[in-house]
Structure formats: C-alpha cells, structure tokens
Amino acid sequence: MPDMKLFAGNATPELARKIADRLYIKLGDADVGRFSDGEISVQINENVRGSDVFIIQSTCAPTNDNLMELIVMVDALRRASAGRITAVIPYFGYARQDRRVRSARVPITAKVVADFLSSVGVDRVLTVDLHAEQIQGFFDVPVDNVFGSPVILEHMKQQSWDSPVMVSPDIGGVVRARAMAKLMNDADLAIIDKRRPKANESQVMHIIGDVNGRDCVMVDDMIDTGGTLCKAAEALKKNGAKRVFAYATHPVFSGNAYENLKNSVIDQVVVTDSIPLSEQMKSLDKVTQLTLSGMLSEALRRVSNEESISAMFEY
C-alpha cells in the first residue's frame, strides 16, 4: 500500500492538525504562501512520489483564495508524481450555485469548480454535507459526501431536553430533520414554512407541528447570516417553545451573523469545525464548536485502505 501523506492549506489548519494526530502521522512539509503581488506560492518540501496524498482544505471565505490554494497544491503534487491525490474539502464553497434559477443567464458555478478540480489532476474528492447532493455528479472523479450527523448526534444525545422536537427551518430540510428525529428515539418533527423575498433574507410564515412547552432543536446543513434561524427561533418562542437550539455542520457566519445570533432568542448554536470560527464568534457563549477530526480521520483511513465509507453511517 502506498504511503499515506497529509497536506493542508491555510483554510483549516487546526482541523488538519487534529486529523493528522488521530492518524498518528505528521502533516506534510509544504510552504503555502503568497508572492509580493498576492499570487499564491506553493512548494512541496518532501518526497511524495507514488504516495497516497490527501489535501485538507475547505473552500470557505476567502473562497477564491482558498480554492486557488487547493488547485495550485494539487498541481504541485501531481507534478511531484504523487500516486493518488484526494481533495478533502470539509466545506465545499459555491455549492449553493448548483442550478440556474429564474434566468438562463447565470452560471452553474458548482459545476465550474468541479471541472476545475477534475482537470487539474484530483483523483478523488471527499467532502462533508454538500449543500446539494447532485453536485457529486458534476465531477468526473469519485466523490465521497460524508455526513456530519454522527458528530452532531453524539452531542445531541448528551443533552437533557424536555420533550424535544426536531425542527426543519424550511421545507428543503425536512429529510434531514426527519432523519435526525428518527435517530433521536423517534422524536416529533416540526416544519417552519417561510417565504424568502431575496437572497440572505427570509420571512417566517407559520409552524407545522406542536412546539408548545417543548425544547425545539433546529437542524440545518449551514448557517450563513443566521437570519433564517433567528426568525425561526422567534416564531418558535411565540408559539410556546420552551428553549430553542440550533445545529448545523457548516458555520459560514457571514455578514451580520454575529449580531443576529448575539441578539437572538436561540439558547445554543452548535456547529462543527468544517470552517474555523472568528475570534468574535468564539466570544459568543451560546456558540459551541464540535470537531469533525474523528470522523474525517476514519474516512481518510478507509479511503487509503480501500475500505467502505458508507459502512461508517450504518445505524
């Protein structure tokens, strides 16, 4: 079996270190920086010829910089004769641009990114909770879309909730919320029906399900500005919810996210480290960050050993 090597860009260095520690290997020696004019500079400082190489790099903000770092690292490793290159992208940026909506004159940027990665020499992609699962079909190489649910579920089961009800913040998240409800001893399900006037803005309409006097647990794949969750939490409280918790895999936290969450009626927000938290977000007591390192390290081990990934998620 080829030697397993792990490299990291500048997007998620702490997560990469945790994964390396769990695999009992050192992060690969690479210089990933910038030239004086801002162009990305990459140099691989160790032999990777014939190795099974994994690059850990979320394409979170600054999205374009982190994406280009990943692209240039792949090219450097390919030219250094790496045996196989797997791009480990815990958070896949541009995933929300997966279709043409309303107008034909818009790009499908998720497909552009997939083509970019495939053409530069990536052999395999491993990501977590893709916003749109059909993006897997945009690639010309195998894609493993693993789930953050085991990490989130473990935290949920440690909580002491009063008659919990799983809540989907919109119609599109019903499948996710229903799955979590089933794993939480067949908890009840509620759905928030909302209207979205324009991007990053949402208006809660009404709640489908009984939340009166109960702890409500909202589940989603990501939190962006937090506007959706905060308005949903207000609606839940107005309908008698005792406490409101929010779980999401990806803490995008853009725009007014800090102010929105700080001033919201949400009691606790739980996210993972697919994206690093800013110091400002870390200062919010109601925000808790879980690590994906255990789940990802096992997934990488299985990929390297040609073992099943899906077996990790058989409950």
Automatic annotation (TrEMBL):
Catalyzed chemical reaction(s): D-ribose 5-phosphate + ATP = 5-phospho-alpha-D-ribose 1-diphosphate + AMP + H(+)
Pfam family, one: Pribosyltran_N
PROSITE patterns: PRPP_SYNTHASE
Binding site for Mg(2+): H131, D170
Record-linked SUPFAM superfamilies: PRTase-like (SSF53271)
Binding, D-ribose 5-phosphate: R196, D220, D224, T225, G226, G227, T228
Cofactor mode of binding and number, as noted: Binds 2 Mg(2+) ions per subunit.
Catalytic site: K194
Cofactors required: Mg(2+)
Domain spans labelled Ribose-phosphate pyrophosphokinase N-terminal: 4-121
GO CC term, one of those recorded: ribose phosphate diphosphokinase complex
Molecular function, one GO term: ribose phosphate diphosphokinase activity
Family from the record: Belongs to the ribose-phosphate pyrophosphokinase family. Class I subfamily.
Protein name (record): Ribose-phosphate pyrophosphokinase
Organism field: Aliidiomarina haloalkalitolerans
